[in-house]
Amino acid sequence: MGEHRNTSQELGDFLRTRRAALTPQESGVATYGSPRRVPGLRREEVALLAGVSVNYYTRIEQGESHQMSHSVLESIANALQLDPDERVHLARLARPTQIVRRRTGPERVRESVLALAESTSEQATIIVGRRMDLLGGNRLGFALLGLAPDQRPNMAKMMFLDPAMRDLLVHWESEARKAASYLRMASSDQPDDRLLAELIGELSIKSTEFTRIWAAHPVSECLHSVREYNHPVVGHLTLNEETLRLPDDPGQRLIFHGAEPGTSSAERLRLLDSLLA
């Protein structure tokens, strides 16, 4: 029962943040009468767009209604203009009984995956677990993060609690939002993961930035992007990040960071590797 109440509250909070972020102009809702107190949509406007009663939608936001039909989920997602990741998140929150439970203890990474990561030489490679624990990588991957090869920190803790990350990442705010977005999706995927809940709780207590970003309910699972670094040894790096999910180990990801051939970033990445040798 406690888990259901928590999931229902998460569902209501998520819907409220998305409703508040969508203006009447963006959704095509006509506005009449007195000035609006808030820029976002009202509950009755979302209900109208979704084709459900105001009473029913209000009950959903208040955590009093769950197990919505697929058609209602789709209608609400369309009304709020949710992106694909947000739709997955909404479905998980709305149907918690359909979540496939997984083992929630410490993670292990397969030796063959470790060998694959360590065999790459031209790209900085790391292996990250479902709770954003660093599970392994090659020497260049550790060096890119300013870590020794035997260190295994939690990447979310590094992002929000280690001041060095603010210096390392050129666009720290957007990267921090990505980290919180991933944790939000992970928490809806496995709501009974005690260690994940403890991680989120610790970040909420120790980082005001995490609390601020988390309150906005960001949701995304970015599998490719471009990251910029101010590396303390080799200087500015612009790297393409590509993420491969490991289907046999749900939540684990193999992440590659490489530079465009012929660029100064490629030269500096090679320089960093040569310094390690």
From TrEMBL:
SUPFAM superfamilies: lambda repressor-like DNA-binding domains. InterPro entries: Cro/C1-type_HTH, Lambda_DNA-bd_dom_sf, MLTR_LBD. It holds the Pfam family HTH_31. Residues 40-87 form the HTH cro/C1-type domain. It comes from the Bacteria. GO terms for molecular function: DNA binding. This is Helix-turn-helix domain-containing protein. It comes from Lentzea tibetensis.
